[in-house]
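Recall the central idea of this unit: under ordinary conditions, the amino acid sequence of a chain determines the structure it adopts. In this exercise we apply that idea directly, starting from the sequence alone.
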Amino acid sequence: REYSIDPEHTYAILIGTSEYDDRANFAPIPPVAGNIDTMYRILCDRTMVGIPYENISRLYNESCINIKDELRNVSRTQNIKTLIIYYSGHGQNTGNSQLSLIAKDTRTIDDELHNDIPYAFVEKMMNSSQADQKIVFIDACHSGLAAQGNSNVFDFEPVQGTFTLASTSAD
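Accordingly, the structure predicted from this sequence is:
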């Protein structure tokens, strides 16, 4: 199968969290704003990718529910060939090789996360999307869990048609 990006039939969701309500557990990450802006410019630039502005959604310092709602909405977008998801912020290994993405309103209570975005939810939304190809960029600690699982080798079934780029190993 041959893959390429048709800008008119590509949708991107850019998620970035640099400020957290639970500052005791999640330190601010000031560069996230620039990461989101740079990715937006690259995706819109006609000499690079050329995705129409209206096909790109930017979520910056949003709540867990807003992020999940947008992921669900984009997974239901019709006439889409490529889905791009970009996340920049904190990531956490919640045990059993499970990655969670941290939203502005994520809280840790007795070592348990609340209002987080389990990567399994992201995978579920990708599986429900009609897009033939899905490209995921995760710029977060433990992001290797999304790409390779905990063993850092490809020993599990990824979402078909998906390319995942992680900024770190699982650990």
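DSSP finds four helices and ten strands in the chain.
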